Amino acid sequence: MLSNTRYRMKRVLIIVCLSAALVACSANPRVDDLDVVRPQPPAPVVVWDGLTWQATTPELPAKISVEQWDQAVAVAAGPSGYVVVGSNSDVMGYVGRIWHSADSIGWTLEEHDFSIGLELVDVAANAETFIAIGTRTGNPNDPVAVILSSPDGSNWSEVSTTAGAWASRVATSPAGFAVILQVDESTQMLVSRDGRDWAPAGSDGMAADTWIADVAWDREGWLAVGSAGDHAVAYRSADGQSWSEDRLPASGPVAGIIDVSAYQVVPGRWATLILGLDREPSCAEDDDWCGKYQVTWSWTAESGWTRLPKANWINDRGYGVEVFPAGDAGFLYLGEEVRLSADGWDWNPVSEDPPSDALTADAVVEGDRVVAVGVPLGADEELVGWFGSGLITR
Fold first, then answer.
1. Distance in angstroms (rounded) separating the CA atoms of residues 148 and 135
2. Could you give phi then psi for residue 281, rounded to 5 degrees?
3. pLDDT for 196-222, tens place per residue?
4. Which residues of 225-256 are buried (b: 16+ CB within 10 A; e: fewer)?
């Protein structure tokens, strides 16, 4: 199992291969399955001709120390526009940050008393409610996971707390919301129909040593992914209580690979993707400077799960990459360049004007717009982070 620290990184930076001296960027020793056949490509999908970034004006928090570094780590679209969450991380402790925008151009900083000591890590929304999650870390040995709710992105209330837990991910669905918590060396999932009343999700059907890293709703229901022992796992549920395993091909160790894990699930219009890692044996001694390799599985109703070949474009981005749902275009990669894929197999470039020049932490596609947050390259200490609002041309 990967350490808890891996999942406390949240959506802050994409991990990329900087040089062979720093991280392993050589070929994955796993041999591709020669019998894998690409499923029939989906019917013609929406294609983007370009992405034009517009200037944004996020309201800046007060600068109270030279160590303060405010980060925007997650974004969601919901009632009354968009919400971005993050926090600062100076030596005096965390302060949660919430920004709200009706148009994704001008951003208002929503300040609340409950933000003191709170590290916000993720946000999700449906048509009626925003849900933000984070952890109070005044005592790192006694964290408290916190769930916040808002009907409009401006007025927030604390609706649930869990002592001894770290908040990790939140997801939305037609059935409500799901939150992943880290509790000691295990994970726990909470579910809610309305975002206010929360209860533990079931674990029937999951292996006892399952570590859940992410959860999302695709066309089949809830899909939770992570690891159990030394292999990657994916579980499906219609109600968040009873689960059945979707077996992933090539999801266990082989010669040269000590374990396999899944860390992100991405529902798309035509397919669902799971992103994961193969790790070399040296990772058992030092997980920071060891060989890791990007893994991607693609699912369609017609083909089930297939593991994409090592030569697939997304698997060549380094490791720990993130992919985002892109509506009728399928999936969006927003890194050193912009690319789209209907099903994870072919990734087609999209021109940017101007180049974003940022490391993307999270992005959401709504209609003709991409709204994203991240870290601007070359940022100085005065910057909050990167707030991107891009118009899509088709």
1. 11
2. -55, -30
3. 999 999 999 999 999 999 999 998 999
4. bbbbebbbbbbbbeebeebeebebebbebeee
Q: Which residues contact 339 (CB under 8 A, 6 or more apart)?
A: 313, 332, 333, 347, 348, 349, 350
| Sequence-ordered list of residues with C-beta below 8 angstroms from that of 120, at least 6 positions apart, any chain | 73, 74, 85, 86, 87, 96, 97, 98, 132, 133, 134
| Cis check: omega of the bond before 354, within 30 degrees of 0 | yes
Tell me the per-residue pLDDT of 92-107, one tens digit each, with 9 for 90 and over: 678 999 999 999 999 9
Q: Cα separation of 241 and 260, whole Å?
A: 25
Query: Is 206 within a domain?
Result: no
Q: What pTM, to 2 d.p., does this model score?
A: 0.93
3-state secondary structure at position 295: strand
Residues 6+ apart with CB under 8 A from 172: 76, 124, 125, 126, 131, 217
Tokens of 125: 């929304």
| 7, part of any domain | no
Q: Which two tokens stand for residue 254?
A: 């082989």
Residue 115 lies in a domain: yes
The count of residues in the chain is: 394
Express each pLDDT in 125-144 by its tens digit: 999 999 999 999 877 789 99
Domain span at residue 134? 57-172+351-394
Q: Rounded CA gap, 185 and 195, in Å?
A: 26
* Position 165 in a domain: yes
**Domain count across the chain:** 1
